[in-house]
Amino acid sequence: MKWLLYNALFAVAYTVMLPSFLLRMKRRGGYRARFADRFGRYPKEIIDVLSHEPQTTNREPRIWIHAVSVGEVQVAGQLMRAMREKNPNLRFVFSTTSSTGWKTAEREVTPADVLIYNPLDFGGCVKRALDAVNPCAVILTETEIWPNFIRALKKRGVPIYLVNARISDRSAPRYKALRWFFGEVFRCFTKIYAQSDLDARRLTDAGADPASVSVTGSFKFDVAHRNEAKERELRDWIGEGEILLGGSTWPGEDVVMLEAYGKILEKHPGVKLVIAPRHFEKADAVEANIKAAGFECVRRSRGGRAEARPSRNAVYLADTTGELMGLFGIASVAFVGKSLCEHGSQNMIEPCLCGVATVVGPYTENFRPVMSDLLAADALMQTPDAPTAEVRKASVVAELQGFFDDPVRCAAYGERARAAVARRCGVVGRCADELLEALG
Fold first, then answer.
1. Residue-wise pLDDT tens digits, 44-103
2. Which of 25, 75, 130, 220 could join 31 via S-S bond, C-beta 3.0 to 4.6 A?
3. 32: Cβ–Cβ under 8 A, 6 or more apart, which residues?
4. 0.85 surpassed by pTM
5. Per the domain annotation, does 255 fall within a domain?
6. What is the DSSP string of 308-339?
7. Three-state SS at 206
């Protein structure tokens, strides 16, 4: 009965959300490509690769690995590489659900792998996808819980693993209240690798078998790597001088960066501001805000660099994908976005790895274990929560100013950040070893 109810509710939800999917296709362009994948219908060339390898009629067993956001895709890519280093014969099917995830995944897969969009969680779509891929194991990342997909794998006897697993503050009460439903789903997993003790407890509260859950720490400490070639390219684009970077900003946070920049310029006229919005389709709105604040806007997607203007500074708008890590590598001070708007923050490990003095807002629940480690090491500055948005924004502005006003303190935070990340690396390799041992 509960599965009939789930399927009915999922069908209604998908129907309601379909207009937003279509709108996203229009805005992001590439989103409509391979749309049939979501119904388990793949192009002939994909079916041919999945059915057999060249010069043989034998079907190669493949591990299916699934991730959604850019950060999760990078986590999955790191795990793939670690497993392949230990067993070069492994073949993967990599699935994602978003066009931005797809673009990142294209850089993670090899010619030996297959890249697809994950099927919708309808029984028929899942069956067609599993018949085509026929995986020997499936690895899901973080919070990718698709009940029909997971139950179908269990019925087929396919081992299922959940890596870097977490349950957010907002989701935990729902999972616990719906234990009667999700308990059966979580118990389908062969093994769950949780980010923290709190995540492990929340998973068992939601019905996971305690014997199947182990705590590894966060995979994301292993994911980020500096790209010196990209750093040189971006430095040539921006020019010399100290850089204030707003990384992965969400709507409204770019305005905070502009306010901070205006105040910083009063004492430090050589500083450059770079804003990298989380979703590049929001770049037009960010450009409008930049111009409204009285600055010239130089967009990365359009090439070129600003000419020196004694009357005002240009603001650099990084509206391309795959370059944020390079920007962190040349930044002097960074603000990590999605942390002022109650959504849980973007990845703060990346600027810390680069030794950048880093400021985050009060909302970082998506990185709770990471933040706990970094705060304990005094490796970054988190502004306090406050009753009003204006006070929260003012705190961020003050901290960004403070780092430029005190270069010794700024450098000390950067060094502690770099050391804190280095101490916590190695989780992915240990998990890869355990997965390979379990898979024989």
1. 999 988 876 543 444 557 999 999 888 889 889 999 999 999 999 899 999 998 888 898
2. 25
3. 25
4. no
5. yes
6. P-TT--EEEE--SSS-HHHHHHH-SEEEESST
7. coil
Domain count, the chain: 2
Rounded average pLDDT over 4-24: 77
Average pLDDT of span 262-268? 95
Judgement on whether residues 200 and 243 belong to the same structural domain of the protein: no
Find the CATH number of the domain harbouring 153.
Answer: 3.40.50.11720
For 182, the enclosing helix (H) or strand (E) is helix 179-186
| Same domain? 396 vs 435 | no
Report the C-alpha gap between 404 and 267 in whole angstroms: 9
Taking only the tens place, the pLDDT of each residue in 325-382 is: 999 999 999 999 999 987 789 999 999 999 999 999 999 988 888 998 999 999 999 9
Are residue 164 and residue 129 in the same domain, yes or no? yes
3-state secondary structure of 380: coil
Phi, psi of 119 (to 5 degrees): -70, 150
Query: Residue 143's closest CA among 211, 103, 202?
Result: 202
Number of C-beta neighbours around residue 216 at 10 A: 20
According to the model, what pLDDT value does residue 57 have? 42
Residue 6, in any domain of the structure: no
Q: How far is CA 176 from the centre of its chain?
A: 25
Please state, in angstroms and rounded to a whole number, the distance separating the CA atoms of residues 399 and 5: 50
Bridging pattern class, strands 137-141 and 63-66: parallel
Which residues participate in catalysis according to the annotation?
Answer: 72
Note whether 164 and 240 are same-domain residues.
no
For the record, the structure tokens of 416 come out as: 């502690």
The residue whose two tokens read 């990471």 is: 370
Q: Domain residues for 66?
A: 29-217+425-439
Residue 103 tokens, joined: 């673009």
Classify burial at 71, counting beta carbons within 10 Å of its beta carbon; exposed 0-12, middle 13-18, buried 19 or more: buried
232-260 per-position pLDDT tens digit: 999 999 999 999 999 999 999 999 999 99
Torsion angle, alpha carbons of 207, 210, 215, 219, to 10: -40
**Are 317 and 267 in the same domain?**
yes
Q: Are strands 114-117 and 137-141 parallel, antiparallel or unpaired?
A: unpaired
